[in-house]
């Protein structure tokens, strides 16, 4: 937000938010700054991806089976290197790493856990479509005397202390929540600062858009087909919506958050547990959307209530405007049919 010559940087905003909590130590604030630094570095490279040899596949394959793009690996290392040495974090976990990455021995281990998808939508890198970074912050649950690890990562989404994403779109935006509303910042590359551009984001209860990959239609259960059909053609009180699908989760999510909409990646016969990941995709976005007045389910259950059993666990995802998500949950709960 720019008031005349006065700009509110994310650093100032976080500091003012921290002052609301006299007991705050400032560690979470500093961790959010660390994430901001990583975002700026990744943004710089994403913006130049077409101009350097960083473009293209790095040849390896991650746990999702996605061909790892060089930018994926760069973003993965950048986030880890921005937080591991700070003494604020004890362990990180990423879509690009098979296992959790505890802070190395000899480095101070802090009280926070960072789960992240370093560059979601990376198959869009080479075709210049918006991509994003998603992050989730928890407090460690294991004793400081023991090494941090998987147990600190496998926490329900409702335990998150902060979550957000960076969208590398027509501009680079960072959107986050610490449970005190949702706030959006736009990077001014001329000064290298994220400036408050979207304070107190709220999402309309009924969305303009529905976002789903309809090429999966024949792989869905009939109830899922009914729900998507209602958003497409209208049914009862559900009015028809415009279809918008970028195929990049953060971009689809952000448009729906601002304009109102519903994003669905249901289970299908190719993805019986859904394609998206619970811990570092659905969970953080669920925290953000609920803080903005929206909802997020796996079709039936609240995403934030799901207790993960596996670090890279998949989940179906229905997320966005609360009345649209509630309609989907009513149909999908009443007509629950397992995907065969
Ligand atoms: P599909 C990108 O690969 C991604 O992980 C998300 O960003 C996106 O929402 C989804 O997969 C798109 O998947 O099967 O529609 O191409």
Would you give an account of this structure?
The chain has 340 residues and is an alpha+beta fold. It has helices spanning 10-18, 27-47, 70-83, 150-153, 222-233, 249-259, 278-291, 322-334; strands spanning 2-3, 6-7, 57-61, 67-69, 89-94, 101-102, 112-120, 131-139, 162-168, 172-177, 182-188, 193-198, 209-211, 242-243, 261-265, 276-277, 295-297, 314-315, 317-320. It has an eight-stranded mixed sheet with strand order 6-5-7-8-9-10-11-12, with helices on both faces. A five-stranded mixed sheet has the order 14-13-15-19-17, sandwiched between helices. The protein folds into two domains: 2-198, 2-Layer Sandwich (Fructose-1,6-Bisphosphatase, Chain A, domain 1); 209-334, D-Maltodextrin-Binding Protein, domain 2 (3-Layer(aba) Sandwich), CATH 3.40.190. The longest helix has 21 residues, at 27-47. The structure holds 6-O-phosphono-alpha-D-fructofuranose. 6-O-phosphono-alpha-D-fructofuranose (P6P) binds next to loops.
Summary of the model, kept short:
With 340 residues, this protein is an alpha+beta fold. It contains 8 helices and 19 strands.
């Amino acid at each position: 937000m720019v008031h005349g010559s006065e700009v509110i940087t994310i650093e100032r905003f976080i500091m003012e938010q921290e002052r609301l909590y006299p007991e705050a130590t400032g560690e979470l604030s500093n961790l959010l700054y660390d994430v901001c630094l990583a975002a700026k570095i990744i943004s710089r490279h994403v913006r130049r991806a077409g101009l350097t040899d960083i473009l293209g596949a790095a040849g390896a394959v991650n746990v999702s089976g996605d061909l790892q793009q060089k930018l994926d690996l760069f973003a993965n290392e950048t986030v880890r290197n921005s937080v591991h040495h700070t003494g604020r974090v004890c362990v990180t976990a990423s879509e690009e790493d098979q296992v959790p990455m505890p802070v190395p021995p000899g480095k101070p281990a802090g009280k926070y856990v960072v789960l992240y998808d370093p560059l979601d939508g990376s198959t869009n890198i080479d075709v210049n479509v918006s991509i994003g970074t998603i992050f989730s912050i928890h407090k460690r649950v294991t004793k400081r005397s023991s090494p941090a690890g998987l147990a600190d990562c496998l926490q329900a989404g409702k335990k998150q202390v902060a979550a957000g994403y960076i969208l590398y779109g027509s501009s680079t935006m960072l959107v986050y929540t610490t449970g005190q509303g949702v706030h959006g910042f736009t990077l001014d590359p001329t000064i290298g600062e994220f400036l408050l551009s979207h304070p107190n984001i709220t999402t309309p209860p009924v969305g303009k858009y529905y976002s789903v990959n309809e090429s999966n239609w024949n792989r869905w259960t009939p109830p899922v087909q009914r729900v998507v059909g209602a958003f497409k053609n209208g049914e009862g009180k559900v009015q028809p919506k415009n279809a918008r699908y970028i195929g990049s989760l953060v971009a689809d999510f952000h448009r729906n958050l601002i304009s109102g909409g519903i994003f669905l990646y249901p289970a299908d016969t190719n993805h019986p547990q859904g394609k998206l990941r619970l811990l570092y995709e659905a969970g953080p976005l669920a925290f953000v959307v609920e803080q903005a007045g929206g909802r997020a389910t796996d079709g039936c259950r609240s995403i934030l209530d799901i207790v993960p059993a596996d670090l890279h666990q998949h989940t179906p995802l229905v997320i966005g405007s609360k009345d649209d998500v509630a309609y989907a949950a009513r149909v999908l709960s009443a007509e629950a049919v397992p995907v065969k």
